[in-house]
Structures are given as structure tokens and as C-alpha cells.
Design a protein that fits this description.
By secondary structure, this protein is an alpha/beta fold. The chain is built from 10 helices and 15 strands. The strands form 3 sheets. Strands 12-9-8-6-7-13-15-14 form an 8-stranded mixed β-sheet. Strands 1-5-4-3-2 form a 5-stranded mixed β-sheet. The protein has a two-stranded antiparallel ribbon with strand order 10-11. It starts with 5 loop residues before the first helix and ends with a helix.
């Protein structure tokens, strides 16, 4: 399970979230493990049955104003109640002044206390967007990811089937490589899959018989990109006379990655077959579907209309003969 420390959050988002540290140390006794945040107003008032200590605690204007209405003893008691739980960190919004006891207990119990100048609601939205990226479900796939006409094609298949060679040919034809050999995939939301490459490998590629090549150096920066949404999986398979391949395209066969479905196109591979051109057609056909035009359905409709007209014409001829 992905974990995030308060120190890493501060380091990566200090500028974007306009954060400042109020405690002496950013070391926390509990890591951040969920993408949700929590506003502990009810807990400060004494109702803790639904308190969620595993989340980042956000103190906005409502919580701070409530504390300011309490007598010193009652305010300390409310703050102590919050620190009874192992919380990862506390963030105060709108650059509000806070009771010194919050910082004191933060230092004593290793609970980092941060403050932002941003308003509460926009800050929560921006922080949640960052946390969603950090905690997004992820996996790795052996294959190649190429941006073809703006469509992310994920080439898969067994080793030595020709995935890298196909990707290289597509780059030479003006398309852009995202990742080769190992594709890292993260899911955004419920259905969006984002693919990217290994930071160490970047846009290097291994071609059997040639060795390792650097596509950004060979073809220029236009030939590569850092990440791309995966929209179609192209599965390369050795041709087999015993297998029945789809020849019409009427029945879409989806594949599932991280519980998100995307179209799957299985392409049989034989010597001399130009897979790069087929890949370009797959991308253009996907774009047509996005705009509502489905070639197999349109062809089937025209075929049925033609057969219906011939049937009716034949029936009329029979009636005239009688």
C-alpha cells in the first residue's frame, strides 16, 4: 500500500499549496495512507464516534472560530481530545492564527502542524487532487505504449512478438513513444488509465540485434512524450490456423486493467505483415467511434438495406409473373 509522509507532502507541495511548517519537525508517528481529508469540528465539540484519525485533519475558519469562543480550560480540553488519536498531520487554512497548544502538542506527539494561506475549500480540492494521484491504483504491464494520432495504443503480447519493433516503426512514421518494455499504469477516477515509463529507462528501447537506442536523441523531442492516456490495447499474437479471428468488428471485446475497461484489438502476426499501418488504422477507427461513426455497424446496416431491397424487388417480380 502506498504511503505518504507529511515531510514528503511538504517538500513536494510547499509552493503549490503555499504551505508553511508551524512545528519544529515534520516527522510524524503516522503516515498518510488515504486520499481523503477530514474536518474535525465535531470531534472538537466532543462527538468522536465518527472521527477519522487516519486522514489529514483540516482546520478551517469554522473550527478556529469555535475554539476562540471557548474558555481556556475548555479550549485545551477540546484540543487534547483531538490529539488523543494518532493523526498524520494537521493543516490550518487561510493563514489563521491558532491556539499555541496545537503547536505545543504537535511538537510533543510528533504530529506535524502546517498552515496555508489558501481558502479552505479551494485548498481541499487541490490537496485532494494531489492525494488522488499519489494513492491511485497502479500496476505494470510488459509492452509498449505509443501515442498514435492522439490515441494511446498499448501493445502487448509475448516476448519477441515484435512490440518494440512496431513502436519503433510508428515513431519513424511520426508518432510518439511513451514507454517501452515496462509500462507503468495508474487509474484516475474510475475509468481513466494513464501510462508512463520508468524514470531510469525513460525513452530508451532495446532492439534485438541492434542493442539499446535512445529515441529522443535519434528522432528528436517530438518523437517522445512523458505520459499518455491508454485508450486501446493492441494484443499481438502469432497467427494460428486453428484460431478464429474477428473479421467484421461487430462484437467489441474489452479488456480490463485496474478494473477499468478499454477496447481490445487482437492482431495476428505473420512475416511481412505491416503492423504499423494496422495500428494507425486502429487509432483512426477508434477516433471515428469517439465521434459516433461505427464502420462495421454502418456496413451491416447498408448490407441489410440492400438485401431488403433485393428481396422486395424479387417479390414484386413474382407477383407480376402471376
Amino acid at each position: 500500500m502506498e504511503k505518504l509522509t507529511a515531510a514528503r507532502l511538504f517538500e513536494e507541495q510547499q509552493a503549490d499549496l503555499e504551505l508553511e511548517a508551524l512545528t519544529e519537525s515534520l516527522a510524524s508517528r503516522r503516515d498518510i495512507t488515504v486520499a481523503d481529508v477530514h474536518r474535525p469540528g465535531m470531534a472538537l465539540m466532543g462527538f468522536v464516534e465518527n472521527f477519522l484519525p487516519e486522514r489529514i485533519q483540516i482546520l478551517g475558519q469554522t473550527e478556529i472560530w469555535y475554539l476562540s469562543t471557548l474558555a481556556d480550560a475548555a479550549r485545551d480540553q477540546a484540543i487534547d481530545r483531538l490529539f488523543k488519536y494518532p493523526i498524520p498531520c494537521i493543516i490550518v487554512s487561510k493563514a489563521l492564527d491558532i491556539p499555541p497548544r496545537i503547536v505545543q502538542l504537535g511538537n510533543e506527539q510528533q504530529v506535524p502542524v502546517l498552515r496555508t494561506s489558501k481558502s479552505t475549500t479551494p485548498f481541499i480540492h487541490q490537496l485532494t487532487a494531489y492525494l488522488d494521484v499519489i494513492f491511485a491504483p497502479q500496476t505494470t504491464v510488459h509492452g509498449s505504449l505509443v501515442d498514435v494520432y492522439g490515441v494511446g495504443l498499448l501493445f502487448t503480447g509475448r516476448s519477441a512478438i515484435g512490440k518494440s519493433e512496431c513502436a519503433l516503426d510508428l515513431v519513424e512514421r511520426g508518432h510518439r513513444l511513451v514507454a517501452d518494455d515496462v509500462v507503468f499504469i495508474k487509474r484516475r477516477g474510475m475509468s481513466v488509465l494513464i501510462g508512463y515509463g520508468n524514470q531510469m529507462l525513460q525513452h530508451h528501447m532495446e532492439i534485438r540485434g541492434v542493442g539499446i537506442i535512445d529515441l529522443a536523441t535519434l528522432f528528436g523531442i517530438r518523437a517522445v512524450r512523458m505520459r499518455k492516456r491508454i485508450e486501446v490495447e493492441v494484443r499481438l499474437k502469432r497467427w494460428s490456423d486453428d484460431e478464429d479471428y474477428d473479421r467484421l468488428g461487430l462484437d467489441e471485446k474489452p479488456t480490463t486493467i485496474l478494473d477499468a475497461e478499454i477496447p481490445l484489438v487482437t492482431v495476428p502476426v505473420i512475416p511481412g505483415k505491416n503492423i504499423s499501418v494496422v495500428a494507425e488504422v486502429i487509432a483512426m477507427n477508434f477516433l471515428l467511434r469517439v465521434y459516433g461513426y461505427r464502420t462495421p455497424e454502418e456496413f451491416n446496416r447498408r448490407l441489410q438495406e440492400s438485401m431488403q431491397k433485393k428481396f422486395e424487388a424479387g417479390r414484386f417480380e413474382d407477383e407480376d409473373t402471376e
